[in-house]
């Protein structure tokens, strides 16, 4: 059971550029910057619930023993470690991200957690929009809180389709852009009154304001299903979880 640690180091005042986080390099720098506090702030701000949502995403991927698996936009490796436990010693998992600092945290956690199965993990620094893998290579793909952050969602979906084996699935976890007024209001209230004020204490106000804006600009569940079908997937279904605050898109090639 993961113990909730709230010892979060203070970061130097953000020299964050004033303009929005529009281009890939700005997002890359953002995730490099938040890497030291990312995991603990997620635990604190979701009261540890994000770990449940991530387990659901991995379960929906259909990952099983002996598989070749990909965790896209792996960050500090939460889903990569869960996929590693699914693949076991006979399988392998690639955790891919373009943030050096996030991958550094992931690699450190792999060493500290030191589970035998984690020897099946390979960390790859690369762009989710230009995957260094051949067609039809993976048995399952997960993407946790990544699709909303890439600058070209259509391209990302096409790349996932390309590297996935026929008949296999992608499982994409992210915030849900809810159409329910109460849920949308609660989510906005949480960001304005809890998430961003808490992040401000750690010098990360603009980074978590970006998080809120990125959700406002994200696709709805139905739009995500269409994005997958347009990329060539034969099946796509978006499930609302966490009381409608989060969503998980499952698509099959
Ligand atoms: C794991 C979670 C978010 C990951 C995440 C994704 C991003 O795109 C970011 C961008 C910029 C900065 C940070 C992130 C980032 O951390 C989800 C849980 C963590 C959230 C920060 C907390 C969200 C709180 C909910 C709106 C309300 C939770 C109510 C209840 C306590 C479950
Ligand atoms: C919010 S974090 C999610 C991390 C992890 N999947 C999780 O669930 O906690 C988003 C991650 O996506 C990565 N990312 C964003 N755009 C990317 C891209 N084009 N290629 C590779 N990684 C990217 C960021 O560096 C960051 O680590």
Automatic annotation (TrEMBL):
It holds the Pfam family Ubie_methyltran. Its main location: plastid. GO terms for cellular component: chloroplast. It catalyses: demethylphylloquinol + S-adenosyl-L-methionine = phylloquinol + S-adenosyl-L-homocysteine + H(+). The keyword Calcium does not apply. It comes from the Eukaryota. Involved in the biosynthesis of phylloquinone (vitamin K1). Methyltransferase required for the conversion of 2-phytyl-1,4-beta-naphthoquinol to phylloquinol. This is 2-phytyl-1,4-beta-naphthoquinone methyltransferase, chloroplastic. The lineage of its organism: Eukaryota, Viridiplantae, Streptophyta, Embryophyta, Tracheophyta. The gene is MENG.
């Amino acid at each position: 059971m993961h113990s909730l640690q709230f010892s979060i180091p203070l970061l130097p005042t953000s020299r964050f550029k004033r303009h929005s986080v529009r281009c890939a390099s700005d997002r890359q720098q953002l995730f490099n910057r938040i890497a030291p506090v990312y995991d603990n702030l997620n635990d604190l701000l979701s009261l540890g619930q994000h770990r449940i949502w991530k387990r659901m995403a991995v379960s929906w991927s259909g990952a099983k023993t002996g598989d070749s698996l990909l965790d896209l936009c792996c960050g500090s490796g939460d889903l990569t470690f869960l996929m590693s436990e699914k693949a076991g010693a006979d399988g392998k998992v690639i955790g891919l991200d373009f943030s050096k600092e996030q991958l550094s945290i992931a690699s450190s956690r792999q060493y500290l957690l030191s589970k035998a199965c984690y020897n099946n993990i390979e960390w790859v620094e690369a762009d989710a929009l230009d995957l260094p893998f051949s067609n039809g290579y993976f048995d399952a793909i997960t993407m946790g809180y990544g699709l909303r952050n890439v600058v070209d969602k259509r391209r990302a979906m096409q790349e996932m389709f390309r590297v996935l084996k026929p008949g296999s699935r992608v499982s994409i976890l992210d915030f849900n852009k809810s159409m329910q007024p109460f849920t949308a209001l609660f989510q906005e209230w949480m960001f304005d009154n809890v998430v961003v004020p808490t992040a401000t204490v750690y010098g990360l106000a603009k980074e978590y304001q970006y998080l809120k804006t990125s959700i406002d600009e994200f696709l709805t569940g139905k739009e995500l299903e269409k994005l997958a079908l347009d990329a060539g997937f034969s099946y796509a279904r978006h499930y609302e979880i966490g009381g409608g605050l989060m969503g998980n898109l499952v698509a099959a090639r």
